[in-house]
UniProtKB/TrEMBL annotation:
Organism (species): Siansivirga zeaxanthinifaciens CC-SAMT-1
Annotated PANTHER family: ALPHA-AMINOADIPIC SEMIALDEHYDE DEHYDROGENASE
Signal peptide: none
EC number(s) reported in the record: 1.2.1.3
Entry keywords, A to Z: NAD, Oxidoreductase
GO MF entries: aldehyde dehydrogenase (NAD+) activity
Enzyme class: oxidoreductase
Entry's family note: Belongs to the aldehyde dehydrogenase family.
Annotated PROSITE patterns: ALDEHYDE_DEHYDR_GLU
The UniProt record lists the keyword Oxidoreductase: yes
Listed name of the protein: aldehyde dehydrogenase (NAD(+))
InterPro entries registered for this protein in UniProt: Ald_DH/histidinol_DH (IPR016161), Ald_DH_C (IPR016163), Ald_DH_CS_GLU (IPR029510), Ald_DH_N (IPR016162), Aldehyde_DH_dom (IPR015590), ALDH7A1-like (IPR044638)
CDD domains according to UniProt: ALDH_F7_AASADH
Active site: 265
Length: 513
């Protein structure tokens, strides 16, 4: 019956056995190679997608460029109303889309639904924002002059996304880009192409119902080489790319080479500092969810716990106990805490991390292992593991996209913990568990965490859409979602208007003819 239910869901979302992977709205086509999407949940082939060829892409960029001419002149609050209708479409389809996310990507159903809720939330945020795309006014130094700045849409925005948030990341970008007057071309991860097709189908319904042209929302599919159509295209002023640091470095160079803009959301190596007077119960909940939620495949997953020596053993024991309660299995079954990794390559890098940490002198306090047998046929289910390690181990310095948690010990003042925390290449999310005001404020101060996200008494994982999301250093420096992140999707123009009959120059320069 589960298979039957999934067929129904795919049908409701407009997904067939073989799908055209290129779309400018209602116009769908593709002539590239076939991508097969297998579920990590049960190893079954869900459906196939025809990827985007270079010729297909040329049609897409042409359509998007001409759609931009219409969309940019549609008043921003009216664009907001389209996004409002899209949010309603997501509300109607939340169960179906959330289930597909869970089945194609492997996260728990609750998290799949949560991801769709995040899409709805960012749309709501964008609707309000569509009436608030404010610039500033300034006083001119010249008499009879007025100065102000305004924000105009950029053009075609290219979105490249990772497998682990196969729908939300797109909406964080599109909801804002659309109200800003931009049109979007999205290349989802080749590991979750059906999520992309489902989203595009829903968006297309809204644009069609409003008699808007093809090309405001476009989809292309394929691997990195299809991503390169976007990064190399001088007609695309902004590339928003979410994924590994490895990918970000290539994309940044490519786009910078043509002086385009990038918004990069790359890997993290997130830590929670556990201070002597931390609330242990809260710490354990935050750390366990942070480390094993989404099977450790969130960019904000907790990778490192930096624990004060005075409470180290207590925290370790509590964590080992908590890990005994974890149920690993089908993520569509609400009783399970941990679902599968995305694919068997991810299982390899999980195994590699466990091997490396031991080789470097670490000790596994919760042993890992790959599960087999009934319910684990996909070969993607692994046991969350905990290792005692040193901050400078090579493997601890890297992001392993799997449920492996490293316990690191610190002694003395909180400064020492912060130093360990910051001493990695990545700078996404960070947290401190403390009831000590001085420690909390130090952690948030200029000398404290160097991450884009710094939390007190909550974990590293997950964020609300109201704040700007992103991180420093090798995380790429981009910010998306809330606060003033919208500004990256627009170009700023400074305007000076002279309403006199004289032409005074700035800085008092005289130029008499
Ligand atoms: P990935 O880098 O393998 O792929 C991400 C996307 O980039 C895919 O769509 C891929 O096809 C594309 N791509 C790869 N090379 C490219 C190239 N040279 N040119 C153009 N496109 C290219 O990442 P993944 O395995 O899908 O995702 C996991 C990674 O994403 C982790 O490192 C995680 O931390 C990161 N991530 C970061 C955030 C964030 O907001 N900071 C959010 C989610 C995931």
């Amino acid at each position: 019956s589960e298979t039957f239910q999934m067929k129904q869901i795919l049908n409701d979302l407009g997904i067939s056995e073989i799908n055209e992977g290129t779309s400018t709205g209602n116009n769908i086509f593709a002539s590239g190679e076939i991508i097969e999407s297998f579920s990590p949940v049960d190893g079954q082939l869900i459906a196939k997608v025809k990827s985007t060829s270079k010729d297909d892409y040329q049609k897409v960029i042409k359509t998007a460029t001409s759609a931009f001419k219409v969309w940019r002149t549609t008043p921003a609050p009216q664009r907001g109303d389209i996004v409002r209708q899209f949010a309603d479409k997501l509300r109607e389809n939340k169960q179906a889309l959330g289930t597909l996310v869970s089945y194609e990507m492997g996260k728990s159903l609750q998290e799949g639904l949560g991801e769709v809720q995040e899409m709805i939330d960012i749309c709501d945020f964008a609707v309000g924002l569509s009436r608030q795309l404010h610039g500033l006014t300034m006083h001119s130094e010249r008499p009879g002059h007025r100065m102000y700045e305004q924000y105009h849409p950029l053009g075609v925005v290219g979105i490249i996304s990772a497998f682990n948030f196969p729908v939300a990341v797109w909406s964080w970008n599109t909801a804002l880009a659309w109200i800003c007057g931009d049109v979007c071309i999205w290349k989802p991860s080749e590991k979750a192409p059906l999520c992309g097709i489902a989203c595009q189908n829903l968006a297309a319904q809204v644009f069609k119902a409003n008699q808007l042209p093809e090309g405001i929302s476009c989809l292309i599919n394929g691997d990195y080489s299809v991503g390169e159509f976007l990064t190399k295209d001088t007609q695309i002023p902004l590339i928003s790319a979410t994924g590994s640091t490895r990918m970000g470095k290539i994309v940044a160079k490519e786009v910078a080479g043509r002086l385009g803009k990038t918004l990069l959301e790359l890997g993290g190596n997130n830590a929670i500092i556990v201070t002597p007077d931390a609330d242990i119960k809260m710490t354990v909940i935050g750390a366990v969810f942070g480390a094993v939620g989404t099977a450790g495949q969130r960019c904000t997953s907790t990778r490192r716990l930096i624990i004060h020596e005075s409470i180290y053993d207590k925290v370790k024991t509590a964590l080992v106990e908590a890990y005994k309660q974890l149920r690993i299995g089908n993520p569509l079954d609400e009783n399970n805490h941990v679902g599968p990794l995305i694919d068997t390559d991810a299982v390899k890098s999980y195994n590699n991390a466990l091997q490396k940490v031991v080789e470097e002198g670490g000790k596994l306090v919760v042993e890992g292992g790959v599960l087999s047998g009934e319910g684990y046929e996909s070969g993607c289910y692994v046991k969350p593991a905990i290792a005692e390690a040193s901050p400078n181990f090579k493997i601890v310095q890297q992001e392993t996209f799997a449920p492996v948690l490293y316990l690191l010990k610190y002694s003395g003042a909180v400064e020492n913990a912060v130093e360990i925390q910051n001493n990695v290449a990545q700078g996404l999310s960070s947290a401190i568990m403390t009831n000590n005001l001085r420690e909390a404020e130090y952690f948030l101060s200029v000398q404290g965490s160097d991450c884009g996200i710094a939390n007190v008494n909550i974990g590293t994982s997950g964020a609300e859409i109201g704040g700007a999301f992103g991180g420093e250093k090798e995380t790429g420096g981009g910010r998306e979602s809330g606060s003033d992140a919208w500004k990256v999707y627009m170009r700023r123009q400074t305007n000076t208007i002279n309403y006199t009959t004289k032409l005074p120059l700035a800085q008092g320069i005289k130029f008499d003819l």
